[in-house]
């Protein structure tokens, strides 16, 4: 799944319990990686994780799916 500090990771734990074969860059799993990233942002929005949603952390730009803007203005999101 998306890793904001290092390479993204995706493993089939039933087949690879020791996480030796990273599938994050395998095109066959691109849609699954996108789906998981979409779930990550959805959960952040549902829980109103403002530290995550309003972050301007550079590595978030590399996630397959980005966050939506929060509804209220903040120091990072003045347009809401």
Compute the CA-based radius of gyration. 15 Å
Strand content: under 5%
DSSP helix count?
A: 2
Report the average pLDDT across residues: 76
Count of the separate structural domains: 1
Distance separating the two termini: 28 Å
Structural class category: mainly alpha
Count of individual beta strands: 0
Shape: elongated
Unreliable sequence segments: none
Write the element-wise H/E pattern from the N-terminal end onward.
HH
Can you give the helix content as a percent range?
Answer: 25-40%
Largest sheet: none
List keywords for this structure.
26% helix, 80 residues, mainly alpha, Alkaline_phosphatase_core_sf, N-sulphoglucosamine sulphohydrolase C-terminal domain-containing protein
Question: How are the SSEs ordered, and which strands pair?
Answer:
Elements: H1 30-46, H2 50-53
Structure description:
The protein has 80 residues and is mainly alpha-helical. It has one domain. 26% of the residues lie in helices and 0% in strands. It has two helices and no strands. The mean pLDDT is 76.
């Amino acid at each position: 799944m998306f890793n904001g500090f290092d390479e993204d990771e995706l493993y089939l734990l039933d087949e690879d319990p020791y996480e030796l074969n990273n599938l994050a860059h395998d095109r066959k799993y691109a849609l699954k990686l996108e789906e998981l990233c979409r779930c990550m942002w959805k959960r952040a929005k549902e829980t109103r994780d403002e530290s995550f949603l309003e972050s301007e952390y550079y590595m978030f730009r590399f996630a397959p799916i980005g966050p939506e803007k929060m509804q209220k203005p903040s120091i990072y999101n003045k347009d809401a």
